[in-house]
Amino acid sequence: MNITYNEQNRIFKLDTAKTSYCIGIVDEENFIGHVYYGRKLADDNLVYLMRTEEAPFVPSKNNRDRTSFLDAFPMEYTGNGLGDYREGTLSVKTKNGHTAVSLSYVSHRIYDGKPVLEGLPATFGTEAECKTLELLCEDSVLQLQVVLLYTVFNDTDVITRSVKIVNQGKDALYLTRVLSACIDMDNDDYEMITMHGSWARERAIQVRPIMKGKQGVSSVRGESSHQEHPFMAWKKSTTTQESGEIYGMHFIYSGNFMAQIELTQFDSMRALIGIHPENFCWKLESGESFQAPEAVCVYSAEGIGGMTRTLHNLYRKHLIRGEYKDKKRPILINNWEATYFEFNTQKLLDIARQASRLGIEMLVMDDGWFGCRDDDNTSLGDWKVNEKKIDGGLKYLVEEVNKLGMKFGIWFEPEMISPDSDLYREHPDWAIAVPGRTGSLARNQYVLDLTRKEVRDHIFDMVASVLHSANIEYVKWDMNRQLSDLGSCGLPADRQGELFHRQVLAVYELQDRLTKEFPHLLLENCSGGGARFDPGMLYYSPQIWCSDDADAIERLSIQEGTAMIYPLSTMGAHVADCPNHTVGRVTPFETRGYVALAGTFGYELDVTKIPEADRNMIPEQVAMYHKYNDLVREGDYYRIASYRENHFYDCYEVVSQDKKEALVTYIQVLNRPNYHSRRIRIPGLAPDQMYVIENAADWPEIRQTKYSGEALQYAGINVPALWGDFKGRLMHLVQV
Ligand code: GLA
Q: How far is CA 93 from CA 146, 173, 273, 643, in A?
């Protein structure tokens, strides 16, 4: 990794092990242009690539036709309103109502390490691990300073970017758009990858051609959402999992976002990512600054898989924190699908007793333990144990669970308030609402106005007091509705446009306090399943519940999309009951175990009620988890085949960093008659080493021989058809 500045050519060059990123300063206006991003180059003299004079009608060195210049020039970070008609990154509104802004280079700093982004989640690294470029630019008319921050890392091929805006003028102004990153480049027959979904079917991968005009994904729901994901990539149409070029942008943020590619009249592309400008308006008083969240930019010449492994390494090493960062997580059993709201101490202890005998390590008490919450109509905000259900009290329950050798975890939904709650009766103004308007309920609840300190403090104290009252070692932090009816009694009229972002900052502050006050706590984020599975939340919790849909077959595509950009160690995945509670499908218990193994692993069923044959399989699954989880958490992930694409089977692999072992998961969704065996190539192994498939004793077609890593990668093996639908196998390859 390195960052250099060539003074003569006025070119910055940021290098990672395999990529280079170049920025140039041009013309007397000191515009900051994007020169190059891609494969690593030794050359830093790429100034010839800067198109300062090419656009139609453009004598660029003077102002005769400035709009044509601005409308074609590849900007690192754009202004607004002066002739760059593409959608941009920054807009303002001055006290006179003007919106124009234009940025010019002033100075720069290059230093070891990386600054913390105040109040925001962000990647981190030591001085030895990363280097940062700070580009200071300004609009001298507005006296607005903009600091562009770029960081490169020594062990992963990403460039992270963020932006800080400082108002040095004497008047307040309003920021109406502050995106975090822009990449302008020529189109090269790229197609776009984004992720889409809904409740119970999050993060389905979609690939589409890039057409003229604007295309992208966004959320204005107050969270990163089930529906679209704060990530996009663009790749050549020939790029596959293991070869070809791909670029990606990912946003470390949990609220409204936009990620967009605009293909222009000149067939150049502008890729943007940042906070969605809709309903965003931030008042910046004189002397104040605004810090935009961080964006991750990634380039790989080694296919989609190259991008995937780069992001996995970045998040494992430079984003996830805390005690469980590199640690195996306890196998948990959660009572939600087992009991829903109908449980009491006895019922939970019955489950725990049975579970502990089978090797399960933690009981998680889900929704329904507080206030008078016997259904989802009531009590959010009243975080006091309902001793009618939890007879004997929480401390007693936890102690009994601990006596069984199990840990205890608990569910909260701290951001919410039920209209039927003591909290609402006492503080109706604590809910986000527009005065005079009947608020829209979702799941019978409102969102608490966490932009108000007294509300945050109250909620934090209630949650903390429950956690202090017993030996609670895990929290599932849920968030079960999206925001609407935006209005805060705590903000003046000209700051209502800050509510969405302030709410996200408040959630970050609360989770920061929680993890500081309870440093040993395992925190799992959740939002109606996986509606807030994003890098922002990963900064606070090493794992996130992936989806409320735990059906093994539905999970294939949910986990495929998730694992394309997130480490397997972060994906909350459980073996659930059958017929599945979301889709009614019946799948073998064994297969459910294989699919959950790709994530954190646990159970979501009533272990006292499931068929005995299934129950008897649990100790085997527990052993399987203990045997493979280090590999799953730490290994390199390869996507081999996608059920989403082929409609028959799914296959993926994790390879240990030293390439001594690998685990291939093969799920045959549908069996078909008259098929011969299926050829599967197994990438990522050491080509010159020999491997055996250690767990294929009962599988004559597979167990027969030693395979070379090279043959496995390029020729593959023949996997015979499995008898029946929804069947699976694990193949554990071990170097000999
Ligand atoms: C959300 C979560 C579920 C469960 C319920 C409880 O839907 O995703 O796992 O905790 O809330 O109400």
A: 16, 6, 21, 49
